[in-house]
Specification:
It is a single chain. This protein is 26% helix and 29% strand. By secondary structure, the protein is an alpha+beta fold. It folds into two domains: 289 residues, Pnp Oxidase, Chain A, CATH 2.30.110.10; 114 residues, UbiD C-terminal domain-like. The longest helix is centred in the middle third of the chain and has 22 residues.
Length: 457
């Protein structure tokens, strides 16, 4: 498995999954526009060797398709979900090393983020350059427990950032630091190995170190090294690390920024200062394009795999689950036992999960990963007069413009807005199973033909 971003790029190139762009393109709008176009047309990872005004190459759309995540994990795409579940049970603690490639160059005077790193300006109304693939790390001021997460970061000036800390654990850490009247030390890593990067967006239980999860997924400990100026450990083989702190009780306008939901948002968010930048020799900048297929793989896949186990605890007849649109759409496959199954799932799910806004429940004979089959099930099995559930005044998410209001939860975990939600029961009535039987070929013929066709495609 790839030990760092560089070795993973070698794997992608060998697999024909890396598109190399030789033309000079600007870091304001042009490279982001090219990333989106490449994602739409060919779906490959993109490598830009000549960003205008910089000598540092930029890579994007690393995990834009499931097959590249499977490549990073060293498994076949068909076995990705099962292998993920298996490895998630094996937490592996990181190892601390004395020296590291990320410290080959250290800048601790005259800090200028934009001169050092080719941070992209992605959309025409964005307030300026934004880190979108930067993983922020901090420690709980009370317990010392480490946490990390993927948070958008605006470059405000040479050494000042605005950071969107709307989710735990870092939102918790900041609250506790402010209660003590002290800054929260942070380290921001850019350009990590693909497994550690993927682990940064996994929804981990409180107290679980995501580096432990990354080590379990990778099958070996993640190498960390002591930071230079803050009491934190950082990925030893990252391309860049920025060290600094969040100023207590200071909030400034951050944004607008084109978010993952496809809309612009501005918030009054925490402000930080960067006092040191370290990086590898000849570093590579990793960018993530918001509202892209890479976000779908990173967020929808990781969240669905973990949320499936939670929902199966309450409803053992749930077989599979698939998330779309950053978790706002949930497709649920069940082995139906009762006509009330779908409604019970909706009433359980909607009040406790602010992300899910539309849920569709289907039978075991519907492929939840095939949009055509979902549309077919809704069109032919849902009876609108009795199979649709609407629930009002439910919790929503702040980056959905159709939601309203908003209040911080007591523990500062999320800013919860309010919205109506809809559940669609697209399952077969139990008393008319023959009438709703899906056309098919005999199962043994299907298996024979699938094995045959695999040789050709």
């Amino acid at each position: 498995m790839a030990k760092d971003l560089r070795s993973f790029l070698g794997q992608l190139k060998a697999a024909g999954e890396l598109l190399e762009i030789e033309e000079e393109l600007g870091i304001t709008f042009e490279i982001p526009a090219a990333i989106r176009e490449i994602d739409k047309r060919v779906g490959k990872a993109a490598y830009f060797s000549r960003p205008k005004g910089h000598t540092i190459p930029i890579v994007a759309n690393l995990l834009g398709q499931k097959k590249r995540l499977a490549l990073a994990l060293g498994v076949e795409e068909e076995g990705l979900i099962e292998e993920y579940f298996r490895r998630r049970q094996n937490l592996t603690k990181p190892t601390l090393v004395a020296d590291a490639p990320v410290k080959e160059v250290i800048i601790n005077k005259d800090i200028s983020i934009s001169k050092t790193i080719p941070v992209l300006t992605h959309h025409q109304r964005d307030a300026g350059p934004y880190f979108t693939s930067a993983v922020t790390m901090a420690k709980d001021p009370e317990t010392g427990i480490r946490g990390m997460g993927l948070h958008r970061i605006q470059v405000k000036d040479d050494d000042t950032i605005g950071i969107f800390l709307a989710t735990p654990p870092l939102s918790h850490f900041l609250k506790r630091a402010e209660e003590q009247g002290r800054p929260l030390e942070i380290a921001v890593a850019v350009g990590m190995d693909p497994i550690t990067f993927f682990a940064s967006v996994i929804w981990a239980p409180q107290g679980i170190d995501k580096f432990d999860i990354a080590g379990g997924l990778k099958g070996s400990p993640i190498e960390l090294v002591k930071a230079e100026s803050v009491d934190l450990e950082v990925p030893a083989r990252a391309e860049f690390v920025l060290e600094g702190y969040i100023i207590p009780h200071k909030r400034d306008k951050e944004g607008p920024f084109g978010e993952s939901t496809g809309y612009y948002f501005s918030f009054d968010n925490p402000v930080g200062k960067i006092k040191l930048i370290s990086h590898r020799k000849d570093p590579i900048y990793h960018a993530l394009m918001p509202f892209s297929s890479e976000e779908t793989v990173l967020l929808d896949l990781s969240w669905e795999l973990d949320n499936l186990k939670v929902i199966q605890t309450a409803f053992p007849n749930v077989m599979r689950m698939h998330l779309q649109a950053l978790g706002e759409i949930m497709l649920i496959q069940i082995a139906k036992d009762s006509e009330e199954d779908a409604r019970k799932i909706f009433h359980y799910l909607f009040p406790v999960n602010p992300f899910v806004k539309l849920a569709i429940v289907v039978d075991a004979d519907v492929d939840i990963y095939d949009p055509r089959e979902i549309a077919w099930a809704v069109a032919t099995r849902c009876r609108p007069n009795c199979d649709i559930t609407i629930m009002e005044d439910m919790p929503g998410v702040m980056i959905d413009p159709s939601t309203s209001g908003g209040e911080r939860t007591d523990d500062l975990a999320l800013l919860i807005t309010h919205t109506a939600k809809m559940g669609i029961d697209a399952t077969k009535p139990l008393n008319e199973l023959d009438r709703y039987e899906k056309i098919a070929v005999p199962e043994h013929i299907k298996e024979k033909v699938q094995t045959l066709i695999k040789k050709y495609v």
